[in-house]
Design a protein that fits this description.
Blueprint lengths: L2 H11 L3 E3 L5 E2 L5 E2 L1 E3 L8 H18 L5 E5 L4 H11 L3 E4 L12 E2 L7 E9 L3 H12 L3 E10 L3 H9 L4 E6 H10 L8 H9 L10
Parallel strand pairs: 5-6, 5-8, 8-9, 9-10
Antiparallel strand pairs: 1-4, 2-3, 6-7
């Protein structure tokens, strides 16, 4: 298996990702989904956690060789940014979803200098909306955002549009398509589930996939 499939397999094995095409989950946004992802669970499995950290290091060094600092998204990206930065011997910080209500009122924690080349570390990309705010916040400080690195993406059209709109590339260690392939091989899903799973990805807001 390649790294995309190894990580997908690990996520399924520890139930960080669950697939229920016939009993959809409901996201906070109200969207009905055949998949639920909680990559925080990976933190509890040292061997699988190391695979993710090593994969992050390899991909970031390959795709963003000029990186000077890593910035995690709050809160899910913080531990990954910290572990990867430690291994790469890079400065690290994180970006809050909003300014602190006390102290200095910081939104960005960690030292960012004018022109510093940074990579944002995230655990999951769905529509990309939350990461867009982080990109904009860092650019306002004068940082140069080279791109985003995440563990997993649903490969939704909204995410592609979001990252294109802010002219920010992104990479992920695994993705929805790889996950489905592994799940089918492992008999976690059935062949007849594929039509539903693929239809959902095309437009999550169109609930007609549930009836397929």
């Amino acid at each position: 298996m390649n790294m995309e499939h190894i990580i997908a397999n690990n996520l399924l094995e520890i139930k960080a990702v669950s697939l229920r095409p016939n009993e959809p989950f409901t996201w906070a946004s109200g969207i009905k989904s055949p998949i639920y992802c909680d990559n925080r669970l990976v933190l509890s499995f040292p061997q699988k956690r190391k695979i993710v950290v090593d994969a992050f290091v390899e991909r970031i060094q390959s795709e963003y060789p000029d990186v000077q600092a890593l910035m995690g998204t709050a809160t899910a990206g913080i531990p990954w940014a910290a572990m990867v930065a430690d291994q790469m011997e890079l400065p690290m910080g994180y970006v809050r979803s909003s300014n602190k209500s006390h102290g200095k009122g910081n939104k960005i924690e960690g030292k960012i200098e004018q022109g510093m080349k940074v990579v944002i570390v995230e655990d999951l990309i769905s529509t990309g909306g939350s990461v867009l705010d982080v990109v904009e916040s860092l650019r306002e400080t004068g940082a140069e955002v080279l791109g985003v690195a995440a563990i997993f993406t649903y490969l939704l059209p909204d995410a592609t549009e979001t990252f294109q709109s802010c002219d920010c590339p992104y990479i992920t260690l695994s993705n929805y398509d790889a996950l489905i392939e592994v799940a089918l091989t492992n008999n976690d899903i059935k062949q007849e589930d594929l039509e539903k799973l693929k239809a959902w990805k095309q437009d999550p807001r169109d609930e007609s996939w549930i009836q397929k």
